[in-house]
Design brief:
It is a single chain. The N and C termini lie far apart (49 Å). This protein has one domain. The protein has a two-stranded antiparallel ribbon with strand order 1-2. A hairpin with a 4-residue loop joins strand 1 and strand 2. It is rod-shaped. The protein contains two helices and two strands, in the order ααββ. The relative contact order is 0.12. The chain has 101 residues and is mainly alpha-helical.
């Protein structure tokens, strides 16, 4: 009985460790998804800016509207404000990704 009890305790500890690892991987996946979205929006912004520059070069008499980085900054701030359970409040870095939050 003692042996089975000890095995049960060990399995419970292993189960808790695996659950923590799963939570950590879930948080990491969430960060990666936000990064991907941020990068895709930045690519779109840069493509649009490039097209505007190409049009200006082809038609210099027309002025293209000015383009601000507000969308990019908004994404940056949203990503920076993402709070995670695994962040270290003392260092300001996320323990999972190493990103500054």
């Amino acid at each position: 009985m003692d042996f089975l009890g000890q095995q049960n305790i060990m399995l419970d500890l292993e189960n808790k460790a695996l659950k923590q690892r799963l939570e950590s991987l879930s948080q990491e996946h969430l960060i990666k998804r936000y990064q991907q979205e941020m990068f895709e929006r930045e690519i779109g912004r840069l493509r649009s800016l490039f097209q505007q520059q190409q049009q200006q070069q082809q038609h210099p008499q027309q002025q293209a509207p000015t383009h601000s980085r507000s969308n990019s900054r908004d994404l940056d701030s949203q990503f920076a404000n993402l709070s995670l359970k695994h962040s270290d409040p003392d260092s300001g870095h996320d323990a999972v990704s190493g990103l500054r939050i």
